[in-house]
Structure prediction request, 292 residues.
Amino acid sequence: MTFEQLKYFIAIVENGTYFNASESLHISQSNLSKQIIKLEKELNIDLFDRRLRSASLTDAGRLFYNDATILINQYNIALNNISNYKKFNDEKLHIGTLPIQTQYNLTSIFNEFKKDNPEINLTIDEVEDEKLLEGIKMDEYHIILARENMLNPKYYDIYPIAKDELVVVLPLGHKLSKYSQLNFNQLSGENFILMNPYTYIYQLCMNIIEEYNISANVVRTARTESIIGAVALNEGISLLPKKNIEIFHHKNLVTVPLNHNIELSVIAAKKKTRANTPALNKLIKFIENFSI
Prediction:
């Protein structure tokens, strides 16, 4: 006797005929009939009264149907329990991150974690803002590394990783480079080269320009490397995270902090509704104890 035969038997009873049952099971009627005959031979009793056109149960069949449904229900419960156990004890973690690993030395976090937890299979995707947020929302990622202000703490558990701030990036010798701090009004009338429109930093800068009524001419948008090169050639100025600039050590650039401190902290985030597996708990604990 197999669970497959029990399912076939129950399907015949619940569908009323062999034909309807075979249609619901997507198997041939002859194959279905053969499996039921095998089951009856093993039990050494008729389950159906074949004198009738419909699948009518014998007394023994009715008794067996009750037991068969209990067995199948228990079988499905067992499968579901094992499935949940495997999910909870899954040793795989999928991490999403903005393209900021180099700036904040985030690679060291992952390498150290892998070294301490070789049994955990860690996959890391470096993606842009929109895909990152969509990934965590759709449970594609267990955890993401992002800017703190990108996420609503009402829906996410937040774990601080690194601090940063928005600074003004100027070409060497620019008239504003002599100041130790700058306010937003001093930036009016300048040509700006900003990060690409799909980034959180671009949206932040545009909000600042609008909020403080800065007369700004955004001449173009680009990736960080291109912005640095363009500013160094005196094509304009920029607003960038401080760490984005520091890794390049460009001698023809000057960075000046803003007197309105705009924090750009980097955090790890996990959706509150996502269950914590042992592997995920290990990563969270590691992040909480790791400081950059």
Summary: The mean pLDDT is 91.
